[in-house]
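Running this now, will post back.
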Amino acid sequence: MKVKVFTILVILALAFAIISPSNVSAQAYTTSFTTSITYQNVDTAATTVLNILFYATPATTTPITIAQPSLASGASTSVYVGGLADITPPFKGSAIIQSDKVLLATLVQLPQNSTTVVVRPLSNGFSDGTDTALIATVLKNTFGSTTVFSIQNIDTVTNTVDIKFFDTGANMLDEIIQNVEAGASYYVDAGTRSLLGTSFNGSVVATATKTVGGGAGKIVGSAMEMEITGIGAKAFESVPAGANTIYMPSALCQAFGSQVTSYAVQNTSLVATAHVTVTFNPGGLTATSDIGPGAKASFPACNTVASGFVGSAVVTSTGAPVIAMGKASGGGLSTAFLGASSGFPRIAMPYVRWAPDANFNSGSAQRTNIAIQNVGGGTIPAGSITLTYTDSFGHSGTHTYNSDLAIGAKFNSNASNAGLTWFGMATPPAAGFGGGVTVNCTAPSCQIIAVARVATFVPATSLTAAEDYNAMQAP
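Update: finished.
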């Protein structure tokens, strides 16, 4: 039987060389993270083949293969990499999930041995790749943060990966050329790159060719941006190609107390300038910038809209296509999400949690809020969008949005809208995690996108640590 292959990039931060495991008050850049892989079966039947293949180094050719139990249709579960007997720390690599059914995966980075860093950076896996991986923002000692990223070869043969660093002035300051075996990954810590100087604010373009014989390779990428003296950290994925219209589901300026968003917009062309406009809605106020080849520009929402603004935005470009990544900060937030060039009628999120007030307010359990945006060409009629919440512990429910959703408009959902008080977690004193959501739109030509925000309340500071991740297309 031929097995479908679903490829995920796993940042297994368990083995960061900069770790000091005994430092309980470590900041984000010096904190150890261990990955939990949360995955969801979005197919119509249970899996009969399900394995995870782990690759330890760029030169690994024989992965560690670990079989997983069957997963029912619609169900989600998680695998804590630090608890796998066959994975010996320190480990920093990548993984591939093999299954005969369509799976989606979100990676959760869990901070270790720190009483101060509580955020759990989130990034998505991939079902495919191209010869290009674009990382919209890479920092070295800038805005108090430094980036570590990984490029994974998802080809069937060895790839030669060319990694170029561009500053905001479109100057290429550094380049790495590295051979990577099929399935394996290569990690880059921007903080160790001397050619980037004492500080760097820019972006990365990685391209791959087959090492033997030439021709286009196939890669994906993922990044973690960590504060050097602070406790914030965030994760996000690479993008294979740009577009001339990008939708951003969240835009904030001093909202909910002190929450703000900023967008990093990268020009995907290495030869042409991108003329970029960001339009904030409601209100229609705009910000513009010309972005040189390979470079990025930043668009803080508060530079354009007034304090208290809550909405969304659309990024448009002429001259060259772009990609966009959003960041939210303030009030304890340290989040990242990708903009989307189009939507789908059915999307899913593998990692969703909801705890009652007492458990959330104690800091012992999480809550997930989901923003769903209409990015299609027409209003979505009331009753057309339904969210189905399903977990591993018998908690299930649906939330149907019973209002019209205008073009560009969004609405919010969480498990309580589906009548649930516990979701994605076993009810104490039982233990265990695993819950996901599918969003289905029945309107003709419907296109929706969504961003999920997973929050943890920190009683010591009375702030909420949170991270965002994007919904993924479901069949």
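The CA atoms of residues 4 and 295 lie 36 Å apart. More later if anyone needs it.
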